[in-house]
Amino acid sequence: MPKVLKINHIGLATPSAEEALRFFEDGLGLAVGGAEDVGSDAVRVSFLPIGESRLELLEPLGDQGPVQRFLTRRGAGVHHFCLEVDDLPGMLERLADLGVELLDKKPRPGAHGTLVAFVHPKSAGGVLVELVQSGSGHEGK
């Protein structure tokens, strides 16, 4: 049976990663552990490691895409949380069998060579949940 391994990251939507980083880097002393453009989602992601987890700053690339829509509707703030799993396809199958509404029925490439899938907030207590499997054996987008 697929297992949840840990909280991988918490995603924070921001109109400007540069401005947000003033607080996180200068104020809290965190350092960006990697940034990457994810063109399929029209977003630039910047990861700030904290122990075994990370904060993920999500900055939209242009005026389209899910993060820009989130910012337009709700403003800056917590966008999602991400759970790392050991078997993403198996977890998606398990959730689908339970009637969970999935935004991604199959894993897709994510940042830093991972596989990701999202669970609809309707099925997760009103919160967007990302599931990630590390070490998927493919290169990042």
In short:
The chain is 21% helix and 37% strand. It is α+β, with helices and mostly antiparallel strands and 141 residues long.
Derived from helix and strand composition plus strand pairing, the structural class reads alpha+beta
**Element pattern in H and E:** EHEEEHEHEEE
Shape: globular
CATH architecture: Roll
What does the radius of gyration come to? 15 Å
* Spatial separation of the terminal alpha carbons: 29 Å
Unreliable stretches covering 5 or more consecutive residues: 137-141
The CATH homologous superfamily name equals 2,3-Dihydroxybiphenyl 1,2-Dioxygenase, domain 1
Fold blueprint:
Elements: E1 4-13, H1 17-27, E2 34-38, E3 43-50, E4 53-60, H2 66-74, E5 77-85, H3 88-97, E6 108-109, E7 115-119, E8 129-133
Parallel strand pairs: 1-4, 5-8
Antiparallel strand pairs: 1-5, 2-3, 3-4, 6-7, 7-8
Structure description:
The protein has helices at residues 17-27, 66-74, 88-97, and strands spanning 4-13, 34-38, 43-50, 53-60, 77-85, 108-109, 115-119, 129-133. By secondary structure, the protein is α+β, with helices and mostly antiparallel strands. It has one domain (4-133): Roll (2,3-Dihydroxybiphenyl 1,2-Dioxygenase, domain 1), CATH 3.10.180. The protein starts with a strand and ends in an 8-residue tail after the last strand.
